[in-house]
Write a structure and sequence with these properties.
The protein is mainly α and about 190 residues long. It has one domain. α1 packs antiparallel against α2. The longest helix is centred in the N-terminal third of the chain and has 77 residues. The relative contact order is 0.14.
Length: about 190
């Protein structure tokens, strides 16, 4: 016949196992949700920084286009006034003008390249580091550990119960014949 203490202990161990399983599943869901949020933040930051890079590049290319329009206008005026200049001085001034224009274009294009370089080697690694700091390890649900914990809890209750019975000497087998410590043996002689 089952003892009520052991039945309650077994039920408690079962409930402990189920509660531990549920807690680990809940923790895992929270960790997965945290990683989803971190990934969404990473994607949003990448899109935002790419948009900024594209806008800066378009603005710089627009500057080059505007400078090209101004330079064409000035060259046309310069070529019309060619009669005032002779030989080498005209070529020198025109070469100086083209050199200045090329330096401006190269400086603007260099700024575009530097922005791309900073994006690839500065911004993206920083975004990835931030993602790693926001994301977390997703812990697995440990069924075997939960089962072992519940089993040890039940075993502890069982052995505690047995120890109390032995201490109060209530754990005597009524069917032990021939022993002097039996409940049914009064020490009568044969």
């Amino acid at each position: 016949m089952c003892n009520p203490t052991l039945v309650v202990s077994g039920a408690s161990a079962l409930l402990q196992f189920q509660a531990n399983q549920a807690q680990q599943k809940f923790t895992r869901q929270q960790q997965e949700q945290q990683n989803k949020i971190a990934l969404a933040n990473r994607e949003a930051k990448i899109v935002s920084s790419q948009r900024q890079l594209i806008e800066k590049t378009k603005a710089r290319l627009t500057k080059i286009g505007d400078a090209e329009k101004v330079s064409r206008k000035k060259r046309s005026i310069f070529k019309v006034n060619r009669e005032n200049f002779v030989g080498n001085s005209y070529d020198f001034l025109l070469a100086n003008y083209y050199d200045t224009e090329a330096n401006y274009k190269n400086r603007v294009l260099g700024n575009i390249e530097r922005s791309k370089f900073n994006y690839l080697y500065g911004t993206l690694p920083a975004i990835d580091n931030q993602y790693r700091s926001q994301s977390t390890y997703v812990s697995p649900v440990q069924t075997s550990y939960n089962m072992a914990s519940a089993g040890l809890s039940f075993a502890s209750s069982y052995y505690d119960y047995k120890a109390k019975r032995n201490r109060f000497e209530t754990d005597v087998d009524p069917y032990e014949y021939g022993k002097s410590e039996s409940l049914y043996y009064d020490g009568w002689d044969d």
